[in-house]
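Input structure tokens:
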């Protein structure tokens, strides 16, 4: 399975702070992270639809590392968790380490690369263009043409992908 091959130990360590030792235990950060990755792999467009899928599919819940018989994290839980990991630098650092490891193993060398981009929808409620922050991090309105020349509009980001070929 894809999730078992991902090492998020640094991310989980960055999220475990002493201030979280009080109050209810909550959900395991690794399970929440696995769940968000699974959401992208399954191409589930919204957190609400994702939570519905977790509630109705115990096998999917198990694969995400969540308790099959226990309660499912709410949309608010996932939103707060997304906010928490977006403030952490751990994912970016892990990505950089993964690139260096791949270079050292001669999996990638950088001599031949391919570049592509795709739209990335935001989970935020779309806002009028006049009320958007132009800080390079906040979602914005995007537009592109598909292969048939039809306009595709979205609220989110444009993800640029560079791959070693």
């Amino acid at each position: 399975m894809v999730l078992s091959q991902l090492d998020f130990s640094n991310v989980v360590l960055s999220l475990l702070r002493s201030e979280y030792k009080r109050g209810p235990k909550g959900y395991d950060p690794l399970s929440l992270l696995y769940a968000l990755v699974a959401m992208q792999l399954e191409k589930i467009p919204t957190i609400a639809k994702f939570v519905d899928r977790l509630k109705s599919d115990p096998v999917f819940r198990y694969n995400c590392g969540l308790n099959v018989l226990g309660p499912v994290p709410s949309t608010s839980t996932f939103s707060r968790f997304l906010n928490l990991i977006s403030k952490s630098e751990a994912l970016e650092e892990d990505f950089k380490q993964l690139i260096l490891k791949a270079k050292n193993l001669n999996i990638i060398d950088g001599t031949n690369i391919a570049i592509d981009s795709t739209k990335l929808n935001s989970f935020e409620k779309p806002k009028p263009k006049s009320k958007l922050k132009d800080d390079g991090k906040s979602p914005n309105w995007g537009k592109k043409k598909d292969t048939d020349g039809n306009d595709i509009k979205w609220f989110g980001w444009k993800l640029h992908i560079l791959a070693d070929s």
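Strands lie at 113-121, 140-145, 151-164. Residues 90-104 form the longest helix (15 residues).
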